[in-house]
Amino acid sequence: MAVETRYALSREAHIAYQVLSDGELDLLFVPSFMSNIELSLGHSAIGSFMERLARFTRLIQFDRRGNGMSDGAGSASTLEEQLDDVSAVLDGVGSRETAMIAVNEGAALALLYAATYPERVRALVLMTPQARLVSGPGYEWALSAEQRSAAVQVVVEQWGRDSTENPWLVFGGQRPDQRAAMARYQRLAMGPGDAAAALALAGETDVRDVLGSIQCPTLVLRRQGDPFIDERHCRYVAEQVPGAHYVQLSGDGQIWIGDREEAAREIEDFLTGVRPPLPSERVLATVLFTDIVGSTELAGELGDTGWRELLEQHDALLNAEVRAHRGRVVKSLGDGALALFDGPTRALGCAVALGKLMHGLGVSIRAGLHTGECELLADEDVGGIAVHIAARISALAGPDEVLASSTVRDLSVGSPFRLESRGEQRFKGVADPWLVFAVAAESPSRQT
After folding, report:
1. pLDDT given at position 73
2. Contact 82, 65 (CB under 8 A)
């Protein structure tokens, strides 16, 4: 299969991609933390699987930022940056609506994209998906942070070696030629230092709160005898994604090992029978509330004219800063505002920047953020429990303080912001408690 590697510009990064076939159904292959699209088709197992998928789709593959042919080596990228990368690739190939197929922890990126941009994703196929990689409350079967750190250390030490001590080679198959091909694949996907950074970021990522927001048909696949990915990872995703279909395939190891035809038939039957989703009135977004601290007293001190002039300056700065961080102001709240963003890192950056700008006006603001499913209402307004939680979090903040929910923390891993726990909080009208975090610091070297 002769294909051309091309590049899509995603802000400052060039993302390598290939279009492998010309079927009517677009299918984007989302890899795990490592990939090299120049090598995948040449691997006996992976290549054969990709060629089978290409028979009934317009199959698109890409190297994630920091992998293979794409820019970004030397630093782990956030999921938010990778959402932009996916959009750049889809725009580059002219895809308005695609199905997505993802493997292992790559499922986190596919799930987040489908929840954030439901109008662009018609279906999901998740092969041995993992929404979280380390154990925690309600997720006790995963490795502990210490166990995973030790396992990652072994992977990094053996990176790229054609050795029985390299545990990752088995993902390409057990035959000597397959193991050698996977060792080369590792070396040309990324260096061991970049692998360590990517694996560390993956270990901190948690997209469990996203699962309930998936609106498209979803297929979850796992081989019955897979010795590497605990079945409970996959069943958890299938149980939490509304209407997801779970299938256990026969055999061992990764989906592309063994009877690939069985897996391909399941995927083909699922995707060709999927109806396009209806236009969505729900979207995953980050909600930001801000307000001026002590506004009543300040208005009294300034008088009507002075207060009106201050609010005009406040609104002008706020609107400009929200636009600069690719958000939109939903509505003014008198002495504050409600704004919406398609990513938590941009929302955090906007909140921090606003605090600094408002100091120039001689005022302090408080801010609260939460990422969740929002209902799109008439007149471009938004509603839903995510808006309610963000408002409650904002009310807890003190002067010059930015508070965020645990979901914002989980989805902004790798960002320049350091979030410190403020403990568990209960909100009126919300059944379960939420962990709240305060923005403590940021690194000037990273951009939002």
Report:
1. 57
2. yes
Strands 245-249 and 26-30: unpaired
Query: How many whole angstroms separate alpha carbon 403 and alpha carbon 393?
Result: 6
Joined tokens for residue 144: 């502990």
C-alpha distance from residue 329 to each of 56, 292, 351, 372 (Å): 42, 16, 13, 17
**Residue 231 pLDDT:** 94
Q: Give the separation between CA 204 and CA 73, rounded to whole angstroms.
A: 19
Q: What is the DSSP string of 145-172?
A: HHHHHHHHHHHHHTTT--STT-GGGGGG
Instruction: Using the structure block, give the residue that is written with the tokens 């279009």.
Output: 19
**Count of H helices and E strands in the chain?**
13, 16
Is the per-residue pLDDT at 75 higher than 80?
A: no
pLDDT attached to residue 278 = 67
Q: Which residue in this structure is represented by tokens 């960002």?
A: 415
At 310, is the pLDDT very low, low, confident or very high (cuts 50, 70, 90)? very high
> For residues 372 and 341, is the Cβ–Cβ distance under 8 A?
no
Inter-helix orientation angle 344-359/295-324, to 10°: 130
Q: How far apart are CA 233 and CA 206, in angstroms?
A: 12
- Cα angle 97-411-425, degrees, rounded to a multiple of 5: 130
Nearest Cα to Cα of residue 386 among 341, 323, 417: 341
Angle between helices 44-54 and 176-189 (to 10 degrees): 80
Two tokens at 154? Answer: 């072994």
Residues 6+ apart with CB under 8 A from 68: 16, 35, 36, 37, 38, 39, 188, 189, 190
* Amino acid of residue 370: H
pLDDT in tens, 287-309: 999 999 999 999 999 999 999 99
